[in-house]
Amino acid sequence: MAGGHYVRRTSWVAVVLIIIAFTLLGLALPMHSLALAITGGVVLIAGLAVGGLYRIMDDAY
Predict the structure, then answer these.
(1) How far is CA 51 from CA 14, 30, 35, 55, in A?
(2) Number of H helices, E strands in the chain
(3) Above 60 in pLDDT, residue 1?
(4) Which pTM does this prediction carry?
């Protein structure tokens, strides 16, 4: 993990979920896959919820 800032594992979980979500959503467009788009949307909402719940924006201070 990166040093220098107060970093928690929950912050990285939120970031990884959001990256996975955008990857799924990016793949859903050229594949014309509604199921993949819905899955990506659900994962994105989960990542945003984890980020908000654990206040990941406070980690930099």
Answers:
(1) 5, 28, 24, 6
(2) 2, 0
(3) no
(4) 0.80
Three-state secondary structure string covering 23-41:
HHHHHHHHHCCHHHHHHHH
The one-letter code for the residue type at 50 is V
Residues of the chain by 3-state class (helix, strand, coil), percent to 5: 80, 0, 20
CA distances from 61 to 6, 15, 27, 40 (A): 7, 17, 35, 30
Could you give the CA distance from residue 17 to residue 38 in angstroms, rounded to a whole number?
14
Q: How far is CA 56 from the centre of its chain?
A: 11
pLDDT averaged over every residue in the chain = 88
